[in-house]
Each structure stands twice: as structure tokens, then as C-alpha cells.
């Protein structure tokens, strides 16, 4: 009995000790726990670490987007194929230690048969793209009412919109390009994946792990991923914001308490959205309007954004550097103002359409201006079919075409230009005729063949050429009988002086030849030799008779133009 009592007593003491231990443990655990507010404060280092990494990665992406013309290459974690980081698609720009591949922001216009710059040999039916990557402008002005509204018509100057123009190649900012519809983009990188927003998202996702090394936090925290990262940038006018949704479970080791984090947000003062809109509008004008000059934008400042145009960086590719003094950020080299580079490949110069027929486009002003050109002289340079013609025997040289250009400019107004060049290169031009080489001064003779050998104009920017045929005819002034007068006589003949005027003959027989035929009723006639110096004078011997002769005088030049008179006396 006494033994059982001892066992019972020991059992009670044991149970009491267990209860006391459990109470103590519960007390200790309760003492180590912290409030939810304190817990959130304690896990702030994790949140700050992730947002700092997100900030650095997003700024690096913006920096590369600016330095590379709006693209992020695959090797950098972006989406643009490395093919676009080669010559022909981008410009290699070296600045300090950086070597940037700046994507072409503008593409030269494509080739369209009979709508593009002419081949040097007018009989060729194919164009050499390397010599002629841009289309010509075969019209007087964009708004000219005489342009052909039929895009398939080749007989008259085609309408601006029916031709292949230079195109804006700047990647779109948004996946659906909801900017404004009239821009009519034509990108190399056409699908939504390559738009800046999507490329930027991909870049951040691919580069975050480079700085998301939690080893410095492992003493106090255990971090477990619960889902994928979702990135959403917002290109505001005064900043760039990036929001990241990334479900995480954070265990705070000192108390073994767990908390879930999901939303991370950063903001930089890089005004990418505002800068992009400004750049896009300028480059669109530069791509589609040959009259627009980038130097106009270069001379202006827009809300702290300045522009620097660097000509012919490599292979005549121009570089435009936009800088925003209000978008400053820190790099490994210190503070930096955001820059966006745009590479513009060389566009070929283009010659305009020249009207050389009154029915096409001549007006009184143009005719009047052309009459002041020495090549055409004071006489009417237009034939019966209203085709412009060069005076036979006149010199054709650079002054001739400069006078023609000036005549067009005066007549057609400020919109007309003798040559267009989209990227405003320093241009040279020359001409070639049927009887001379490029740039050779010539005088047209009676044997010049204008129908099959038109005058050619050529313009060059040092890399590309454009050609156009200048359809022009040869102006001949027919002979004119000035006088047929009695000079002297003897027993057998009356001697007359026949004076004929023909300006071309004064240049020599290679320019024109005049023949005469004098017939007198009932008389024999001997046409004497040409004794002209500045004019044409013949001695005509007519058989003598008591009755005054009745004679018909007929003169004709090489071209078949003639004059005829009847003389009695």
C-alpha cells in the first residue's frame, strides 16, 4: 500500500513538472514573438534590397535604350537580334570607353520601277540599289495640282503619297503604337515584341538576377519565391516608373515568423516618355519632308532638351544626340544627363521633275524667266509644239543650268528646289550632252541628235548619284530674205545683191547651211558665190534685157526652213 502511494505521488509530480515546462515554453515563445508592424519593419531590408536592384536595372535599361536608338539587343538581355548590331542596320559610335551600336532611326526610301532615281544609262531597265537607294522627286512641289493622282500612271509626275518615301524606323514606344495614326510608321522591327515597352520589360527580367543576390541577407531571412516576376513600366512626362509584382514568402529567422511581399515600385527622374515624343516628331519630319532641316531643331531648346547634329560619323551616316538637362541620374562614372542617340543613314540626293513642255507646266512667268538665259537668247525659245529648245550654236555650260534653275525658282516659288537631299549633305552636280562628256561645255550643231540623246543632269553627295533626263530640243532660226537689189549691169547681165539673214550660219557650216535658188521668167540666172562675212550676200547675175525681170527668190537652210519672195525691177 505504501509502495503504491509513492508511485502515485511521483506520477503527480511528473505531470506537474511537464505542465510547468509547457507553460514555460509557451511563455518563452510568446516573449520572442513580435507584432506584425514590427515584423514588417524588420523585413524592410529585403524590400529595399529588391527595389534598389530594380532601380539600378531599370536605369541601366533606359541608359542603353538612349545610347542605342531605342533598342536593347539579345546579348544585353533585350529582344533585338544581333543582326541589327551590324553595319547596314546600325552605326558603331565610339565615345570614351563606350562603343554603342545606334540603331538606324530613319531608312532611305525603297526602289520602285520608273519612280526612283534614274540609272546612268537611260536604256537600262534595272536600278542599282547601292547607287540609288532613295526615290527621286519627279514633281515641282508636294501640292502641285498637275501631279498624277493615279499611282500606276507613269506619264506624268506621281503624287507624293503614291511613292516610296524615306521612313521613320524609330521603334514604337507601346505594343499597339497608340500614338497618333497619321504617322504611318514603317519599322524594321514590326511586331509588338520589339516595341520599346516590351523590350524594356524583357531586359529588366533578364538582368534582375545579376543583382538579386540575397547572400548578404541570409543570416536573418529565408526568402522563397511563390510566383513569376511581372514588370510594368510607366513612361510619364516627368519621370519613368517601374512596378514589379513578385510573390515572395519571407521568414524572419530570429522569431521564425513569416510574411508575404508582392509589390515593388521604383521611380527615376528620367523623362523618357517626354523625350521620346519630342524625338519621334522631329525624326518623322526629317524622314518624310525633304524641305525640313534638322538644323532648325538644333538651334532650339525644348523644355531643357537640346539637340546636337554630328554629320558623317561613318560612311556618311549622321548622328543626332538629344540631351535632357532635367533627366539626371547616377552611373558608375558619376552624374549623367540622359541622352538619346538617333542614327540617320545617308539618303541619296534627288532631282526634281523639270517641265520642258508648255502643256505640262510652263506658265508665262517661267517662259519670261527662261528668255533671260543666254543659252536661249532673246528670240522665242519655244517651237510650234511648245517644247523648250536651245538656240543652235549657243554654248551649253553650267551657267545654262543655273539660269534654268533660277527661272524655275522664280516661277514656281519657294517650294521648288533644284535638288533635294533628305540629310542635307554637301552636293555637287554636273551635266552631260549627246556630244560631250560630263561637265564638258559644248555647242550644238546641225547634226546634234536630241531625240535619242537627251541632256542628262547628275547630282551626287559623294556616295550616291541621282540622274534625270532633261528633255530639250534644238532651236533653229530659219533664213530670212533681207534685200534683193540692183547693183550694176553690162551688155549681157544685170547684177543683183541678195542679202539673207540666218544667225546660225555665222557660227560656221557645221551649225547651218543656207542654199539659194533664183529664177527669172525668160532669163538665165547665175547664182554667184557666197561673199558673206557676218551675214549672207550673194551676187546674182540675171540675163540682161530691155524689160525689167520678174524673179522669184527662194532660200532654204539645213533644217528645211525657208523664205520666198518675188521681185520685179
Write a brief structural summary:
With 569 residues, this protein is α+β, with helices and mostly antiparallel strands.
Lay out the secondary structure.
Layout lengths: L1 H31 L3 H7 L1 H24 L22 E6 L2 E6 L2 E2 L59 E2 L27 H13 L12 E5 L4 E6 L4 E13 L4 E12 L3 H17 L5 H5 L6 E10 L2 E15 L2 E11 L19 H7 L18 E3 L3 E2 L1 H15 L15 E5 L9 E2 L11 E6 L4 E6 L2 E3 L4 E10 L3 E9 L12 E7 L4 E6 L5 E8 L6 E8 L4 E7 L1
Parallel strand pairs: 12-18
Antiparallel strand pairs: 1-2, 3-4, 5-7, 6-7, 7-8, 9-10, 10-11, 13-15, 14-16, 16-17, 19-20, 20-23, 21-24, 22-23, 24-25
Brief descriptors of the model:
569 residues; alpha+beta; 4-stranded antiparallel β-sheet; 8 helices; 25 strands; rod-shaped
Would you give an account of this structure?
The protein is an alpha+beta fold. The chain has 4 domains: 1-32; 34-108 and 170-348, no CATH class; 364-475, no CATH class; 480-568, Immunoglobulin-like, CATH 2.60.40. It is built from 8 helices and 25 strands. Strands 5, 6, 7 and 8 form a 4-stranded antiparallel sheet that branches. A 4-stranded antiparallel sheet has the order 19-20-23-22, with no helix packed on it. A hairpin with a 4-residue loop joins β7 and β8 (257-268). α3 (44-67) packs across α4 and α7 (364-370) packs antiparallel against α8. The longest helix has 31 residues, at 2-32. It is rod-shaped and about 185 Å long. The N and C termini lie far apart (188 Å).
Amino acid at each position: 500500500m505504501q509502495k503504491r502511494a509513492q508511485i502515485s505521488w511521483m506520477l503527480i509530480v511528473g505531470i506537474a513538472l511537464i505542465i510547468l515546462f509547457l507553460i514555460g515554453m509557451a511563455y518563452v515563445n510568446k516573449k520572442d514573438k513580435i507584432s506584425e508592424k514590427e515584423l514588417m519593419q524588420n523585413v524592410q531590408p529585403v524590400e529595399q534590397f529588391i527595389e534598389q536592384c530594380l532601380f539600378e536595372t531599370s536605369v541601366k535599361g533606359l541608359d542603353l535604350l538612349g545610347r542605342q536608338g531605342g533598342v536593347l539587343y539579345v546579348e544585353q538581355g533585350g529582344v533585338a537580334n544581333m543582326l541589327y548590331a551590324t553595319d547596314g542596320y546600325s552605326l558603331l559610335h565610339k565615345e570614351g570607353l563606350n562603343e554603342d551600336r545606334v540603331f538606324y532611326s530613319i531608312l532611305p526610301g525603297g526602289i520602285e520601277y520608273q519612280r526612283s532615281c534614274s540609272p546612268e544609262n537611260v536604256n537600262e531597265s534595272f536600278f542599282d540599289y547601292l547607287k540609288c537607294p532613295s526615290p527621286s522627286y519627279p514633281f515641282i512641289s508636294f501640292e502641285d495640282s498637275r501631279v498624277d493622282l493615279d499611282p500606276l500612271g507613269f506619264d506624268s509626275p506621281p503624287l507624293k503619297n503614291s511613292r516610296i518615301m524615306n521612313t521613320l524606323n524609330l521603334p514604337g514606344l507601346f505594343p499597339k503604337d497608340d500614338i497618333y495614326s497619321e504617322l504611318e510608321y514603317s519599322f524594321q522591327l514590326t511586331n509588338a515584341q520589339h516595341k520599346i515597352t516590351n523590350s524594356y520589360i524583357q531586359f529588366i527580367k533578364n538582368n534582375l538576377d545579376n543583382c538579386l543576390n540575397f547572400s548578404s541577407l541570409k543570416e536573418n531571412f529565408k526568402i522563397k519565391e511563390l510566383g513569376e516576376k511581372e514588370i510594368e513600366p510607366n513612361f510619364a512626362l516627368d519621370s519613368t516608373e517601374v512596378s514589379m509584382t513578385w510573390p515572395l514568402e519571407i521568414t524572419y529567422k530570429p522569431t521564425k515568423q513569416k510574411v508575404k511581399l508582392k509589390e515593388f515600385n521604383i521611380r527615376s527622374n528620367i523623362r523618357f516618355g517626354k523625350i521620346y515624343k519630342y524625338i519621334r516628331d522631329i525624326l518623322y519630319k526629317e524622314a518624310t519632308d525633304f524641305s525640313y532641316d534638322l538644323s532648325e531643331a538644333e538651334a532650339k531648346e525644348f523644355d531643357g532638351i537640346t539637340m546636337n547634329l554630328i554629320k558623317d560619323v561613318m560612311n556618311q551616316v549622321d548622328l543626332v544626340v538629344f540631351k535632357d538637362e532635367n533627366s539626371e541620374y547616377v552611373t558608375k562614372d558619376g552624374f549623367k544627363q540622359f541622352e538619346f542617340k538617333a542614327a540617320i543613314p545617308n539618303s541619296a540626293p534627288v532631282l526634281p521633275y523639270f517641265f520642258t513642255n508648255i502643256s505640262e507646266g510652263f506658265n508665262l512667268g517661267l517662259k519670261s524667266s527662261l528668255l533671260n538665259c543666254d543659252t536661249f537668247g532673246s528670240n522665242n525659245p519655244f517651237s510650234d509644239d511648245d517644247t523648250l529648245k536651245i538656240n543652235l550654236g549657243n554654248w551649253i555650260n553650267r551657267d545654262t543650268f543655273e539660269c534654268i534653275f533660277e527661272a524655275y525658282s522664280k516661277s514656281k516659288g519657294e517650294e521648288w528646289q533644284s535638288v533635294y537631299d533628305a540629310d542635307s549633305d554637301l552636293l555637287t552636280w554636273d551635266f552631260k550632252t549627246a556630244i560631250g562628256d560630263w561637265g564638258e561645255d559644248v555647242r550644238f550643231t546641225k547634226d546634234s541628235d536630241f531625240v535619242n540623246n537627251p541632256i542628262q543632269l547628275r547630282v551626287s553627295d559623294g556616295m550616291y548619284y541621282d540622274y534625270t533626263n532633261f528633255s530639250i530640243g534644238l532651236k533653229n532660226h530659219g533664213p530670212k530674205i533681207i534685200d534683193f537689189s540692183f547693183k550694176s549691169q553690162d551688155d549681157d547681165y544685170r547684177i543683183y545683191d541678195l542679202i539673207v539673214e540666218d544667225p546660225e550660219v555665222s557660227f560656221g557650216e557645221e551649225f547651218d547651211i543656207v542654199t539659194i535658188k533664183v529664177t527669172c521668167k525668160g532669163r538665165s540666172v547665175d547664182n554667184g558665190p557666197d561673199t558673206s562675212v557676218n551675214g549672207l550676200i550673194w551676187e546674182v547675175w540675171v540675163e540682161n534685157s530691155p524689160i525689167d525681170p520678174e524673179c522669184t527668190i527662194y532660200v532654204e537652210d539645213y533644217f528645211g526652213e525657208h523664205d520666198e519672195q518675188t521681185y520685179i525691177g
